[in-house]
Design brief:
The protein folds into 2 domains: 3-110 and 218-245, Rossmann fold; 112-215, Dihydrodipicolinate Reductase, domain 2 (2-Layer Sandwich). The strands form 2 sheets. It has a 6-stranded parallel β-sheet with strand order 2-1-3-4-5-11, sandwiched between helices. β7 and β8 form a beta hairpin. It is an alpha/beta fold. 30% of the residues lie in helices and 27% in strands. The protein is built from 7 helices and 11 strands. The longest helix has 13 residues, at 112-124. The protein is globular and about 65 Å long.
Length: 247
């Protein structure tokens, strides 16, 4: 039996990829494709084909509204929209504790390589005190830092609970990037770029750089499909493709 999916943000770059994937997958069914002018009620599908899962790949400003609407309607959600920092995730997690029959999967980056790169960086962060992140995306990307960089910084900080925070830039060093969970993040927005992130870790006499470079949107395909197939059974809040992969 197919999983019925509604895509919000279907006309965007990631949304277009998702729509094509869903239409080609034998175990998924596209029941609604919403653009910026669509009514939110359209995400519920039709009486004959109601949606089971809502995929939100919209924009940061409206993403929380979309998630709230979907949960109010009893739909599980996969969120691929940036902007879901720890501060935004906290109230969502609290709400889901009162909705034990529902689940939301928040995926800052659907690329398998990106998930692995972030996991590797979090592991390496236990051994280096000097760590900074440099991320680059297309000039059209609205938010910065990226959701991937925010997630990476938060996981680095979590991995260092026992060791303590990284060596943070002095407050007067404005060119050292925005601090996220105590980690300096530098954002580039350039034409000709899809997505790239480097985590640079420095120690005595050495540096380690963990880089992931997205060269084609097809890199997101496997992660999108895995998240959608995991969504019907999701309960509570799951953050990161790494969690779905057991990294």
């Amino acid at each position: 039996m197919s999983i019925r999916v509604a895509v919000v943000g279907a006309t965007g770059k990631l949304g277009s990829v998702a729509v094509d994937l869903i239409e080609a997958a034998p175990d998924l069914e596209l029941v609604a494709a919403l653009g910026s002018k669509s009514d939110l009620a359209d995400m519920l599908g039709t009486e004959a084909a109601p949606s089971e899962v809502v995929l939100d790949v919209s924009v940061p400003a409206v993403s929380p509204t979309i998630v709230d609407y979907a949960l109010d309607a009893g739909r599980n959600v996969v969120v691929g929209t940036s902007g879901w920092s720890a501060a935004r995730l906290a109230p969502l997690g609290a709400r889901l504790r009162d909705l034990p029959e529902l689940g939301v999967i928040v995926v800052p980056n659907f690329s398998l390589g990106s998930a692995l790169g972030t996991a590797f960086a979090a592991t390496a962060a236990k051994y280096f005190d000097s760590i900074e992140i440099v991320e680059a995306h297309a000039a059209s990307k609205i938010d910065s830092p990226s959701g991937t960089a925010v997630r990476t910084a938060e996981l680095i900080a979590r991995a260092r609970d026992e060791r303590g925070p990284v060596v943070a830039p002095h407050t007067d060093q404005r060119a050292r990037g925005q601090q996220v969970a105590g980690v300096a993040v530098h954002s580039l927005r350039l034409d000709g770029v899809i997505a790239k992130q480097s985590v640079v870790l420095g120690g005595q006499g050495e540096t380690l750089t963990i880089t992931h470079d997205t060269t084609d949107p097809r890199a997101y395909a496997a992660g999108i499909l895995h998240a959608l197939r995991s969504a019907p059974a999701a309960r509570g809040l799951t953050v990161g493709l790494d969690q779905l992969l057991g990294l």
